[in-house]
Specification:
It contains two helices and eleven strands. With about 190 residues, it is mainly β. The chain has helices at about 5-15, 30-40; strands spanning about 55-60, 70-75, 80, 90-95, 110-115, 115-120, 135-140, 145-155, 160-165, 170-175, 180-185. Bound molecules: calcium ion. Calcium ion binds next to loops.
Length: about 190
């Protein structure tokens, strides 16, 4: 991401500490490293100007169903990486609002079942350095065009289960009241 004391080093050592987005250990991860490099190149990440970066926040900034990334640059404006995604894949987002639980629903867990897919995610506070991810939970569904079930475990202990939920929407779920709002996403 960048060197911790880059200003000092640049002034006194005459070296640049701006870096590419990720550095992986030279040993280990032998198969993962080239695969990650190819994925980064395909996504256009190698074209991003070098910078000394710190935190990163993940979320769907433009409500198109694809998770975007905001990178925090030291002494410079942040970089917003908009994810244009892959056509044809379904997805769904859930915004949770607690009533008995905390309003932000921190700690709530959602489990979705779609065909053979079973996924879960949890609403979390805090993430990368000085960053907060989107509190909405995002699930990529691939070619699955129907959610068989959606189960919400609220911090209060309440468990709610919804069935046959259509993908490609942003749902607002209120604790104890089910789906209270639906915002369609663009066609996959
Ligand atoms: Ca997006």
């Amino acid at each position: 991401m960048g060197h911790r004391v880059f200003r000092f080093r640049q002034r006194w050592l005459g070296r640049s500490f701006r870096r590419q987005r990720a550095r992986l250990p030279a040993d280990g991860l032998a198969g993962f490293r080239p695969a990650l490099s190819r994925a980064a190149a395909a996504a256009g990440l190698n074209a991003i100007p070098l910078a000394s970066r710190r935190g990163a926040a993940f979320g769907d900034v433009n409500d198109d169903g694809n998770i975007d990334v905001l990178l925090l640059n030291v002494g410079e404006p942040p970089s917003l990486l908009l994810n244009h995604g892959v056509a044809g894949n379904h997805r769904v987002l859930f915004r949770l609002i607690g009533t008995k639980s905390n309003r932000a629903a921190i700690g709530a867990r959602v489990t979705v079942r779609a065909g053979k897919l079973v996924q879960f995610s949890e609403v979390r506070g805090g993430a990368s350095y000085l960053s907060q991810n989107d509190l909405r939970l995002h699930f990529g569904l691939g070619k699955e065009s129907n959610l068989n079930s959606v189960e919400v475990q609220w911090p209060s202990g309440l468990v709610e289960k919804l069935q046959n939920v259509a993908p490609d929407n942003i749902y607002t779920l209120v604790e104890g009241r089910g789906i209270r709002d639906t915002k369609p996403l663009p066609a996959p």
